[in-house]
Write a structure and sequence with these properties.
The complex is a heterodimer of chains A (268) and B (328).
Chain A: H1 2-11, H2 21-38, H3 41-66, H4 69-88, H5 90-102, H6 104-109, H7 117-144, H8 151-179, H9 183-199, H10 212-220, H11 222-235, H12 240-267
Chain B: E1 13-22, E2 25-35, E3 40-44, H1 51-58, E4 66-71, E5 74-75, H2 80-86, E6 87-90, H3 102-113, H4 117-130, H5 146-156, E7 164-168, H6 176-191, E8 195-200, H7 203-209, E9 212-217, E10 220-225, H8 227-234, E11 238-243, H9 249-260, E12 264-266, E13 272-276, H10 280-292, E14 297-303, H11 307-315
Parallel strand pairs in B: 3-8, 3-9, 6-7, 7-8
Antiparallel strand pairs in B: 1-2, 1-4, 4-5, 9-10, 11-13, 11-14, 12-13
Helix pairs in contact in B: 3-4, 8-11, 9-10
The chains are: A mainly alpha (268), B alpha/beta (328).
């Protein structure tokens, strides 16, 4: 068949010079961007729950908790940003689990590329997710009357802290993504773990009214420490101690789980 | 780059005593393979025989527990990166990003291989045309049919023409039309000089495509040769019988085994039997015995064994039956 000879001549290609590790990593970053283009629905998943939380807590509980909805929103918004990023940090792990299940990683691993470059793509996806979700929530907050006293600079610093938080928590779910069989298991584990962490914190209410035993936990809960630092950055009165305390968990998580993630990935 | 130093001599694949255990299961248990360059080599075996594990080891995805192998002269354990640079693997499940379009999937891989900018796009477009996917290039892969996915998956393995292409059950789950088109593609690749190692549980596929076939079962290689050699080794004459009344098959089986002394094999349809007979006289006696017992025959023939029968003779059990047309 003529068709076959055409096929044969078209398919032959020599290998171009080997690209750099950075180039490999950028290609995976491009893949993460394409995902946003093709699956815009995922934005809905990212911000729907935090938007509902913001509206419900502000208008239903806000007046009772802080005297007025405006005062409560000012207290609550930096915290809901932390909560959003912590929850959304599970998406990389779910994506990893999906790719592993579909055999996509087998293809990547049988290519002569820098073996860790697929993770660069996951990180690019993470950073985009955290920035997009945080900006959307912040925008809605501002429309409802929230005002970051520290202005643009404070907001930019806060966004940076959020990306660092998401990056740190992301490792937990990358490990789960490598260990769990299905993406939905990763999600279930994420909810089970994160729920108590965000509720038993200072995100929604001032811990002053909580029983003493609970306050012991709330005060050292990394989510509380991060929320305090976020409030400080947005208000322009964050102390170095607050920032340091907020960074403990992301730094510890990265230092311990990044090597574990790579080890699990390499022996899979 | 290692390309310039690629060893040009020797077999495409040379494996010695490759083994992989999962707990107590010896998935691959000491397999030797010699695949010459440019050949389509078939690994035939039922589900769970160890075919995929063997392929994954040769594609550097799984370290062997014992044994060694060289692919195009590169040692699997010592230079896995060189092996990866000379092979491509198409796994059993389409390893594509479902959310991206077919074209984006190919551009992604082309860029990972080192094609830049426009040349990556051109490579993707050339492959889409060659694999008859140009019309679907802008569609997300999740909207592709099974046959289209499979073609894209194979195209994805050819972004850079590999020295050795591993195909793990390339047509499992495809309808007969799509299967024929994948077969055509595999043959034209072999014509272009690509060594192809494919696994299959379909005897017909091995028979149609592979110049040599290794039969594996329970992780061990139990036979190897051309399909003709395998058939000859099993015995020259096979008697194929189809009964009018399928309910009498057990009785027919017993009579046949009594008169010929060789074991009869039931087909998956339930009304057909086949057995090895060494002479026409024996065949005659076997048929006469059935007629004497009033077992009516719808059809009978003498001939060379099919690969199915070869497999049965070698392993003592039947492979998965072929999906009937339209079922897959």
């Amino acid at each position: 068949m003529d068709n076959e000879t055409a096929t044969t001549s078209l398919i032959y290609a020599e290998r171009p010079p080997q690209p750099s590790a950075l180039s490999n990593a950028l290609v995976f970053g491009w893949r993460a961007v394409l995902k946003f283009k093709h699956v815009p629905e995922q934005l809905f998943d990212l911000v729907m729950t935090p938007i509902m939380f913001t509206l419900l807590f502000t208008f239903v509980f806000g007046g009772a908790l802080s005297g007025s909805t405006a005062a409560y929103l000012q207290y609550f918004l930096p915290g809901i940003l932390v909560q959003t990023v912590v929850f959304n940090s599970m998406y990389s792990g779910m994506g990893l689990s999906t790719d592993l299940g579909k055999g996509l990683f087998d293809r990547f691993r049988s290519l002569p590329i820098w073996s860790l470059s697929p993770f660069a793509g996951l990180m690019v996806g993470d950073i985009l997710r955290h920035l997009i979700a945080s900006l959307l929530i912040l925008l809605i907050g501002i429309l409802l009357g929230y005002r970051p006293e520290a202005g643009i600079i404070g907001v930019v610093e806060a966004l940076l802290l959020l990306v660092v938080i998401g990056f740190g928590f992301g490792w937990i779910f990358l490990v789960l993504g490598l260990v769990m069989r299905t993406p939905s298991t990763v999600m279930t584990m994420a909810f089970t773990g994160i729920m108590p962490l965000v509720f038993a914190s200072n995100i929604m209410v001032d811990p002053a009214t909580m029983p003493g035993w609970l306050r012991v936990f709330v005060d050292v809960n990394p989510v509380s420490l991060m929320t305090t630092a976020m409030r400080g950055l947005m208000a322009g009165n964050a102390t170095a101690a607050q920032l340091g305390a907020a960074l403990i968990a992301p730094v510890l998580l990265t230092a311990s789980l990044a090597p574990l993630t790579l080890w699990l990935y390499r022996r899979k | 780059m290692p390309d310039t130093a690629r060893p040009q001599k020797g077999a495409a694949i040379e494996a010695r005593g490759l083994s992989k255990h999962f707990g107590d299961v010896r998935a691959v248990d000491g397999i030797d393979l010699d695949v010459p360059r440019g050949m389509i080599f078939g690994i035939l075996g039922p589900n769970g025989a160890g075919k995929t594990t063997l392929l994954r080891m040769l594609a550097t995805l799984l370290p062997p527990d014992a044994g060694s192998a060289r692919v195009l002269g590169y040692d699997l354990a010592k230079s896995p990166h060189d092996v990866r640079a000379s092979i491509a693997m198409t796994g059993q499940f389409a390893s594509l990003d479902e959310d991206l379009t077919g074209r984006e999937n190919l551009i992604l891989l082309a860029r990972l291989w080192g094609f830049r900018g426009q040349s990556a796009k051109k490579r993707a477009d050339d492959l889409l045309i060659a694999f008859d996917l140009a019309d679907a290039s802008a569609k997300q892969v999740k909207d592709y049919s099974g046959g289209m996915r499979r073609r894209l998956d194979i195209a994805a393995s050819l972004v850079v023409t590999p020295g050795v292409l591993f195909l793990d059950e390339p047509t499992t789950g495809l309808d007969p039309m799509a299967r024929k088109s994948v077969w055509r593609m595999i043959r034209s690749l072999a014509d272009a000089g690509v060594t192809i190692l494919l696994t299959t549980q379909y005897l017909e596929e091995a028979d149609q495509l592979a110049a040599r076939i290794a039969v594996i079962d329970h992780g061990k290689k139990i036979a190897e040769g051309t399909s003709r050699e395998l058939k000859t080794a099993t015995g020259s004459g096979f008697l194929h019988l189809t009964l009018v009344d399928a309910t009498r098959i057990a009785e027919a089986e017993r009579l046949l085994e009594e008169t010929t002394g060789s074991k009869a094999q039931r087909s998956s349809e339930g009304s057909a039997l086949s057995l090895m007979v060494d002479t026409p006289q024996n065949a005659n006696r076997a048929i006469a015995a059935l007629i004497d017992a009033n077992i009516e025959l719808a059809d009978f023939s003498m001939g060379a064994p099919s690969l199915d029968e070869v497999f049965f003779a070698l392993t003592g059990h039947i492979t998965e039956s072929q999906p009937s047309p339209g079922e897959a």
